[in-house]
Design goal:
3-stranded parallel β-sheet
């Protein structure tokens, strides 16, 4: 199988716990990921007080330290993984048998919520930015904090500059008003890298049907999240499939992708799933339901690859 996963917190978890990308006790490491076959992965950075063991680091410091750690891990595992910025670079990495690694940011406070910080991040290879994580910031409210607040003028300018640079706007943690302003503002595809169907699991981090349709209308992508709290109970493989099937019923054959949120979920995964190696179980479950190999491959790889090819061109 081929896998293009739109979101994991592995880089941040390794930074916090002092472990390595090559092999670690979390949900993702290079050994297990490459065992799947051709594998591309967005690695996210976000801010929590304990991300850097000494504690108390500012979001901007966490970003700089995280980028250095990412580069160190790339160098230490150069035969297995390479950083990519465009679809062409992803294809070249996969053809050489390496993991295609892309960097993303979860919460623009890591970039100072500024255009200057955004451009520095682009230069360092960041190709997707979630405007907010759980915290509201100068750009917008989030689902978890100030959920009634949409984009500020600063937030709108930030989104517009992302489009000019060729960066994916990620709305997975964004407030509902912010979501709809992004949907109106962006000219091309945008993404919800790790969000499920709110109609199946009434959690605000998930998407309403109209939100999903808005992303599909812009030819974007929505990544299926494996966190139990967003899958709903019973948190089983069948329930994960139910979210995929719900989105497919909304016309999402070219929109649904994978965004497992692994290493952000910790142990709070559906029954029988413990890490990236178990994506094969989901792949096989869809095939057993008589979905075509072409469609299942699209969900696991082609849909997100198409979006990256269209947006991340530089």
């Amino acid at each position: 199988m081929e896998l293009f996963d739109g979101h994991c917190d592995t880089l941040t978890r390794c930074l916090r716990e002092g472990t390595r990308l090559g092999r670690n006790p979390g949900n993702i490491d290079l050994e297990r990921g490459r065992g799947l076959g051709r594998w591309a992965q967005f690695f996210a950075l976000f801010h929590e007080p304990d991300v850097i063991p000494s504690g108390g680091a500012s979001p901007e410091t966490v970003f700089e330290v995280g980028c250095r750690f990412f580069q160190q891990e790339l160098e230490a595992n150069a035969e297995q993984i390479v950083q990519c910025r465009t679809g062409a670079e992803i294809q070249a990495a996969l053809d050489s048998g390496k993991c295609a690694a892309l960097l993303s940011v979860e919460g623009a406070e890591l970039l100072g919520c500024s255009l200057e910080g955004l451009e520095r991040a682009w230069q360092q290879g960041v190709r997707a930015v979630g405007l907010t994580w759980n915290h509201a910031n100068a750009l917008s409210g989030s689902i978890a904090q100030e959920p009634e607040r949409g984009l500020s003028p600063q937030g709108r300018a930030f989104v517009e500059r992302m489009g000019e640079l060729g960066m994916l706007v990620d709305v997975s943690h964004l407030s509902d008003p912010g979501f709809w302003e992004v949907a109106e503002l962006v000219k091309g595809p945008f993404v919800a890298t790790h969000s499920n169907a709110r109609s199946l699991c009434p959690q605000m981090r998930n998407l309403t049907d109209d939100m999903f349709r808005a992303i599909a209308h812009k030819k974007g992508a929505v990544g299926i999240n494996l966190f139990r709290g967003f899958v709903g109970e019973p948190a089983t493989l069948d329930q994960v499939v139910a979210h995929i099937e719900h989105f497919l019923a909304l016309g999402g054959e070219e929109t649904v992708c994978i965004g497992g949120d692994l290493d952000g979920c910790g142990d709070c995964l559906p029954d029988g799933i413990s890490g990236i190696q178990d994506f094969t179980l989901l792949y096989e479950a869809l095939l057993r339901r008589n979905y075509t190999e072409t469609l299942v491959h699209a969900i696991f790889f082609d849909n997100l690859m198409r979006v990256v090819n269209e947006v991340c061109t530089m």
